[in-house]
Model the fold of this input.
Amino acid sequence: MDFPPSRLITMLRAEEFDQVLASKTLWMCLSCYACAQVCPAQIPLTRVVMTRAKEELLLAGNVPAELQSALENSQRYGNVMGQPPRKRTDWIKDITPAVPVLGKEKRSTDIVWFVGDYASYHPRVQAVTRAMAKVLHALGVDFAILGPEEVSDGDSQRLAGERGLFELLANKNAQALRKYTFNGILTTDPHAYNAFKNEYPSLGIAYPVRHHTQLLFDHLEQVRPLFKRERKLRVAYHDPCYLGRVNAIYDEPRAVLSAIPGVELVEMSHARETSLCCGGGGGGMWLDGFQWELAHTRTSEWRVQEAVSAGADVLAIACPYEPARFEDATKVVPGAASLAVKDIVEIVADAIAE
Amino acid sequence: MTQDVYVVVEHLRGQVMDISYVMLAAARKLAGSTGGQVVAVLLGHNAQTLAQGLGADRVLYADDKALADFSPTAYQEVLQALLAERQPRVVLMGNTSVGADVACGVAAKLDLPLVGSCLTIGEGGNPISRICGGKIMAETELADGTVVMTMVPGGYAPEAGRSSQAASMETLTFPPVGEQRVTLRQYIEPEAGDVDIAKEAILVAVGRGIQNQDNLELAEALAQALGGVVCASRPVVDQGWLPTSRLVGKSGKAVKPKLYLALGISGAPEHMEALSGVEMLIAINMDPGAPIFESAKYGAEADLFELVPALTEKIQQAKAS
Amino acid sequence: MNIVVPVKLVPDLVEGLSVDQSGTSLDTAWMRLIISEFDDHAIEQAILLKEAGGGQVVVVAPDVEGVDDVLFTAAAKGADRLVKLDAQLGIGVDNHTLARALAGVIKDMHPDLVMTGVQAHNDLDGSVGPLLAAFLGMPYVGYIAGVSAGDGRIAVRKEYPGGLVAEMEVQTPAVLGIQAAAKPPRYVAVSKVRQAMQTAKIEPAAVGEPDPRGAPKILRLFQPEPAERATMIQGNPEQVAAKLVDVLREAGLV
Done:
């Protein structure tokens, strides 16, 4: 970081734009809202100041290469990884009963499950997606997915300064959704949750949305009798930035975890409003190399250290950016080799397994 | 018009490039079906000795000061005149920074059929080209007349194009090469300093499995025995055991070596996406379920601390014999 | 300086490729076209030269699926004129046909430099750059990673294997085959491309009858053997090491 955020803001106020445009500081920002949360003047630092400044950086051509690829891939392939759109539903292979794909089934459904990029394509996160499908089936939820018509929700791209790309992606999703009849959207991704809840409506795309921890909470009395296994686990729950700080959802995930037989919830030293970002937000997923070069530390490693200090067996998560980031961190943080990283729905699926 | 197969020899600063021998091997196959001879065409200045070891029946040598270093326009001028006069059945040039600069111009100016990216010559004497990032093979008909063909390496071993017998050499006479519109000012040496792994042909890659910095020397020894260079996946570079210039992966470099020997690397997507250009991937990992085995050509579920020293020794022995 | 950049759109390999029923062309059912990577570098290098020393950049492309977006993106990066050949000249069309069509249009532009990608992945009959140079009667040099212009001379950095680079001097007008621009192709925000769509104009250019003379006849297209899961080598470390040396020897690596 060439200068701290407070100095960056001072420079903006003093209109020293050239220096800001050439800076690396802005690309260290994870759009995690920790600063906005505590700002005594309640300045919309994350949503407005940092995002707007990043937009100018992109226009000025100051884009780290990794981020550039992610943005170009989003536009061309509808996913940040640059994977072929046709393969977006490869994860449903071998799942029984089959996961309904709206483009093929042509029927109405209660819930459209907006799956997301990482949940669709990344091998580790696909395990979370399959666990979600299993639990939805066990609960008898009437749901379907969009399939290859679904594209990235675009929220992180928006926060990385690409407003135009965000709108392009949102409109593609809107075009797909408009074709179908359904009551609400489900997602396992707090960023997609944030998009649908807070950003899409201003583009004329308005649907009720739930994060999967909310759905699990809503179905808690139905899930409880399904728990077969009791495993004594000390579980530390990590509040994702866009579920917790940004959208004030803290209790439902904890309630779901506490309902699982054998689970003892422990809190890490930063929790709820003060939770530490995993490092993936604001474009961080696509700036890892760049940020590492400058900081030689990762917030994901701090967080895993906190889980170890809290005596946890399992670090429970609820965002698709987290599994890979936290698992990588367990490989390098002392004492973390035996720490399991699991999405809440994976822990639930494990507990209802025969 | 003859049935001979000409091969334009590629050389830089006194060294004959491997592609020349690959082409000579291909030419031998082609000449087998055309019934002509394999003729090496050597352009240079005081470069006769470069003809040693070429697996050809005859060598045509053209000497001019303007040919002392490669110049696309000078080569084109000489070759155009030569081909117009001798009219061989086929002329092979490399699909390289030397041959590709010349082949199309010569073919277009003489109105000759041209086929590129040839990997092998099929059984019927037709060229088989490799295109679209190696995903598609194309067999085309060997046209009538003098066919200009550019070749890529990989279809024939260079050894097959070498010979210990000296071929007869004919020194060509032609008007002096005129002023050229593309001239060499100077060569710029590759930076002495850290290697560019993206350009290396042999890479020994280390991952988490190497466990600590001291064990790197095992990988270094293996790399040295192979004539390659050590590179790494993210965790190794993050620990500072190797510089970022050695990082292979999404946040590092994509590599395209002939051999990538992965030691203790699991094969996460972020690493694998940088390996799509690897010709042969060999993976050593204790975990039989490591994803890297899905993409590797060969694998061994083995302890690298036992395997690597044994492998290094055997390679050193093989090279010494 | 007047720089013309002809670009080719090629099958996007991310979408996968297969051969169609006829066995002599690619299946276009799932095919999407993308600008050839080296042509993208040529556009970048042309814009860099313009930014350094002034001049005009003209981008020329055949009329195929996705070409408008490619041209408007070039405009958003700084290209001054966008020209679209009024013929399909896309997949299934050889480089000789395309190069002749381009030559007909480009010769009347009187360029100082023509820059295009050194090759495209679907090249089967040489590359567009050197063919175009022959049809235009201009000298050609390829594998260029860096161009500078000054005092009426053009200096280029030509890449050879092993990291060796040759600095060459080129007399204009000339055609350059670009391997890499001095900087990687810049990012253009979606909003900027949107703007270019409003302000930039694509000019049509007439081309004559297609002339494929010189291109080969395709007998068949096929896919190489698919890769399988690794052949696992069994045994104790000594045995595995010995087997590996055999593998390496056979591959010519030892």
Summary: Strands of chain A lie at 111-114, 143-145, 184-187, 209-211, 233-237, 263-266, 314-317, 340-343. The mean pLDDT of chain A is 93.
